[in-house]
Specification:
Blueprint lengths: L2 H10 L8 H20 L5 E5 L13 E6 L2 H4 L5 E3 L12 E6 L9 H11 E12 L16 E5 L9 E5 L1 H10 L2 E9 L3 H8 L2 H6 L4 H4 L11 E8 L2
Parallel strand pairs: 1-2, 1-4, 2-3, 4-5
Antiparallel strand pairs: 5-9, 6-7, 8-9
């Protein structure tokens, strides 16, 4: 999907995150993880909130923030908004102490370019908290895209009709992070069973409600690496 198309979608839709069980679980987990990581690790003084228009999770971060997004409409209410593409950040090297990129932002970008830009603009020792949709979800079993490093897929569980985006495997994103001077500190996954249930029953209400089973599934060897979403906390070490 082109940059213009993505901008038009997010400038014109009324609600990015619908009020249903699936997305309530998604936003709850993202907010919980952002809160956990920003308390556990020192994100420093100036944080880049990359993709700020899609989530309010960065509100849990007390640091001084620059809110960056492709959609000028979505970040207009922010205190320090900057509009642009995360593949070409308009900031100097080491401008930020850490970067926060959640809400599956990199699924609409080239991950290698975006992560390279995060690395360039992050000071040594800083952190990157990044969340994305993966090719490891059980909804993709039986398809060529299952566990592929990079796959273009039609979003099964989407707010917008027939939206196509790019999904990545967790090992692929971790490899890109390491190539760009990051060390992986923590990896967390969520929406383990929900995608398969949705594929089987076609009901958002049922599959979303059962996302509460994540608390069990993430400890089961067969299921814990299969999830719709992955959240990685990495540290810039080189």
């Amino acid at each position: 999907m082109s940059e213009r198309a993505i901008r038009n979608i997010y400038n014109n839709i009324q609600q990015i995150w619908p009020d249903d069980p699936w997305y309530r679980h998604t936003t709850t987990r993202i907010r919980s993880l952002v809160g956990h990581f920003t308390r556990k690790y020192d994100f420093g003084h100036v944080v880049l909130n990359a993709g700020a228009g899609g989530t309010d999770a960065a509100d849990l971060c007390d640091n001084d923030k620059i809110d960056f997004d492709l959609s000028e409409k979505r970040i207009a209410p922010c205190t320090k908004p900057v509009c642009g593409n995360i593949e070409t950040l308009p900031f100097k090297d080491a401008a930020f102490s850490s970067v926060l990129c959640v809400g599956s932002v990199i699924n609409y970008c080239k991950a290698d370019r975006s992560i390279a830009e995060f690395s360039r603009t992050t000071a040594p020792g800083g952190y990157l908290a990044i969340e994305f949709e993966t090719t490891e979800g059980l909804d993709l079993i039986g398809f060529d895209s299952f566990k592929r490093d990079v796959a273009i897929v039609t979003n099964l569980y989407d707010v917008h009709d027939s939206e196509i985006n790019v999904k990545y495997s967790s090992p692929h994103i971790q490899s890109i992070l390491k190539e760009n001077g990051y060390a992986i500190r923590e990896v967390t996954r969520f929406h383990h069973l929900s995608p398969l249930l949705y594929r089987l029953c076609g009901s958002r209400r049922i599959s979303g409600v059962l996302s509460s089973l994540d608390c069990v599934a993430r400890f089961m060897p067969i299921l814990r690496t299969h999830a719709w979403n992955t959240f990685i906390l990495a540290q810039k070490v080189a």
